[in-house]
Amino acid sequence: MIFRPATRQDLPAVLALLAQDDGPAAAGPPEPAREPVSEAHELAFAAIEADPRNEMLILEEGGVLLGCLQLTYIPGLGQGGRERALVEAVRIRADRRGGGLGARLMELAADRARERGCGLIQLTSSKRRTAAHRFYERLGYTRSHEGFKLPLV
Amino acid sequence: MIFRPATRQDLPAVLALLAQDDGPAAAGPPEPAREPVSEAHELAFAAIEADPRNEMLILEEGGVLLGCLQLTYIPGLGQGGRERALVEAVRIRADRRGGGLGARLMELAADRARERGCGLIQLTSSKRRTAAHRFYERLGYTRSHEGFKLPLV
């Protein structure tokens, strides 16, 4: 298995993966359909790729995309000046869930953030996704915070 | 009142504010003591200032620092390619809490993120801070997520 930043060539497969329902019980298509790549997607991916504090990371095996997540490295005045890593857009292919790939992906992400020198890794998960909460707690995460969101558009 | 990005000259006062207990019932000192500025603080502040997707923002009046927060603008493939804004390090001076300054600061932050084109603004708040949760809900935020953290050091 390879864990690496996604390139522009990976973008259609990554969009297809992100479009899959991320609920643990979701029965997604065995082979992700290719999503059309809009100009907004192109621009957003280029912004991630050009930003030294953002990475769209993928887990693949034999050319097959198994999972993805985005890491954002946030500078801050706390924690002795160490960055914190924020995790967003976590997905495992629907037909490969339940076999430990999610745990592997999250471990690789934490290792990457630790090697970079981050003091903390954090994420939020919808309150409806109770199986995901147990998953993160098994990985050592503490459910210490409430997550608030406000749409701006 | 002025709402603007902090400069290097503001750093000692910002560090003093961040060092105040952020609990709503905290009785902090009426005049924030000046924190010594370590090299780690200098480097972290320089990283925030140099990053076009990070801002340490302050609210001041007559040269007095009333509050601060950090905004991080995160590019992503969701939301039609719009950035999301993450809020961290929210503080209001201990001797000026309870008078609506926190709401004003959060409104200014949301306006700034909206003007930039962000689709969403989000934050996490410690589960112990129940008064803060009601505060964010009054501002229109939805407590939709669980917040997970894992120390890396």
Mean pLDDT of chain A: 92
Output the structural class of chain A. Answer: alpha+beta
Q: Largest interface, per-chain counts? A: A-B, 60 and 60 residues
Instruction: Bin the helical content of chain A.
Output: 25-40%
Secondary-structure element string of chain A: EHHEEEHEHE
Largest sheet of chain A: 5 strands, mixed
Number of strands of chain A: 6
Number of domains of chain A: 1
Number of helices of chain A: 4
> What integer value in Å does the Rg of chain A equal?
16 Å
State the end-to-end CA separation of chain A. 39 Å
CATH superfamily descriptor of chain A: Gcn5-related N-acetyltransferase (GNAT)
Shape of chain A: globular
Strand order of the largest sheet of chain A: 1-2-3-4-5
This entry's quaternary arrangement is homodimer
What is the CATH class designation of chain A? Alpha Beta
Low-confidence stretches of chain A: 24-30
CATH architecture of chain A: 3-Layer(aba) Sandwich
Strand content of chain A: 25-35%
CATH topology of chain A: Aminopeptidase
Which key phrases capture this entry?
homodimer; 153 residues; alpha+beta; Aminopeptidase; five-stranded mixed beta sheet; 4 helices; 6 strands; 30% helix; 32% strand
Describe the structure.
Chain A is of the alpha+beta class. Chain A has one domain: 3-Layer(aba) Sandwich (Aminopeptidase), CATH 3.40.630. The first copy, chain A, is built from 4 helices and 6 strands, in the order E-H-H-E-E-E-H-E-H-E. A 5-stranded mixed β-sheet of chain A has the order 1-2-3-4-5, sandwiched between helices. In chain A, strand 4, helix 3 and strand 5 (120-126) form a beta-alpha-beta unit. The radius of gyration of chain A is 16 Å and the shape is globular. Chain A starts with a strand and ends with a strand. Mean pLDDT of chain A is 92; it is low at 24-30. Chains A and B meet through helix 1, helix 2, strand 3, strand 4 and helix 3 of A and helix 1, helix 2, strand 3, strand 4 and helix 3 of B.
